[in-house]
Write a structure and sequence with these properties.
- A hairpin with an 8-residue loop joins strand 2 (188-191) and strand 3 (200-203).
- The protein has a three-stranded antiparallel sheet with strand order 1-2-3.
- The radius of gyration is 22 Å and the shape is globular.
- It has 16 helices and three strands.
- It folds into two domains: 8-113, no CATH class; 138-312, hpI Integrase, Chain A (Orthogonal Bundle).
- The longest helix is centred in the N-terminal third of the chain and has 20 residues, at 94-113.
- By secondary structure, the protein is mainly alpha-helical.
- The protein has helices spanning 8-11, 20-35, 40-49, 51-59, 70-81, 94-113, 138-146, 154-166, 171-175, 206-223, 247-261, 264-268, 273-286, 291-298, 303-306, 308-312; strands spanning 182-183, 188-191, 200-203.
- Helix 8 (154-166) packs across helix 10 (206-223) and helix 8 packs across helix 13.
Length: 316
């Protein structure tokens, strides 16, 4: 089957439209993504990316999503792999194809959780050439902690470092945390929604527990709005206007810390919150932790995603 396009924006230009029933299911999928905490761009993009799949089902005369056969899904995916973009004239790259696979898996999870059907999925992710990840040495991590302000807002800076380095969270995972997700008594952070669509518990050590306790006791109360007080579902990280911190807020905090280190080498490199995640994974591997345990800690769906640290740990 040849599509006019398969990108989110161009999917709207496909002449054929999903049936009313399928449109209702896609609308429900969009609402489900929003409810479980995906970003606005993902909530908008993923249902649109499912439209070519729905049109493929219609072509195959499949009117129900109850146990869609693997052969049908495979033929749809093969069409994707052999489709050339009308803009570039090139085939979809492996990362884009993996995005479609992820979307199919999420859509299948939605169907199963809402008792609307299931897909027989067994499509392996495409191999992607991963660019070399930036990793900080332990001494550089110590410098970042040492650069935290001695003023009250330094408590928030330490809490951010302990989330993104100590717990290895993705940027979006950290800003989506609520108060009841940071369980001081159990020394666990509960990540409700990750990039892979799976929840997980992430342990933290005593020093990180102290950072979180001091932030919650002495700094965060000054940022709380009256409507937030006492609410376990209020954001854990707050910005200066009493709202949930954004990815940009976290990135700016990290840049400020880097500038304060006066480490010119550190300042010349492209350091992001994800660098902290790469760094803790590499340090854990060098300390002797098993790759499978690190994979669970990071919330990777596939062990192959974690294997990059085998190479990085030899260099740091």
């Amino acid at each position: 089957m040849k599509y006019n396009s398969i990108t989110p924006g161009e999917a709207r230009g496909v002449k054929a439209k999903p049936s009313y029933t399928y449109q209702r299911i896609l609308a429900g999928y969009k609402e489900w993504l929003d409810i479980i905490g995906y970003s606005k761009s993902t909530v908008k993009r993923f249902p649109l990316r499912m439209e070519p799949f729905i049109l493929h089902l219609k072509k195959e005369n499949i009117s129900s999503l109850d146990n869609v056969p693997y052969a049908t899904i495979r033929s749809y995916y093969e069409d994707l792999k052999h489709h050339r973009s009308e803009h570039t004239g090139e085939f979809l790259n492996p990362s884009t194809l993996n995005g479609y696979i992820r979307n199919l898996n999420l859509f299948n999870k939605y169907l199963q959780e809402t008792d609307q059907g299931s897909l027989q999925l067994d499509i392996k992710r495409e191999k992607v050439q991963t660019p070399e990840a930036e990793v900080l040495a332990k001494e550089e991590i110590h410098q970042l902690y040492g650069a935290c302000s001695e003023q009250l807002h330094g408590l928030k800076e330490r809490a951010i470092l302990s989330l993104y380095y100590g717990c290895g969270l993705r940027c979006g995972e950290g800003v989506r945390l609520n108060l009841n997700d940071v369980m001081l008594d159990k020394q666990m952070v509960y990540v409700r929604q990750s990039k892979t669509g799976r929840a997980r518990y992430v342990p933290f050590v005593e020093s990180q527990k102290k950072d979180f306790e001091l932030y919650l006791k002495h700094y965060r109360p000054h940022l709380e709005s009256p409507s937030m007080k006492g609410k376990a579902t209020a954001p854990f990280l707050l910005n200066q206007i009493s709202q949930r911190m954004s990815n940009d807020n976290v990135t700016k905090t990290l840049k400020d810390l880097i500038a304060r280190t006066e480490n010119e080498d550190l300042q010349s490199r492209k350091i992001t919150p994800h660098t902290l995640r790469h760094s803790i994974a590499t340090h854990l591997l060098r300390s002797g932790m098993e790759l499978e345990a690190i994979s669970q800690f990071l919330g990777h769906r596939w062990l192959s995603s974690t294997q990059i640290y085998l190479h990085l740990s030899a260099e740091v």
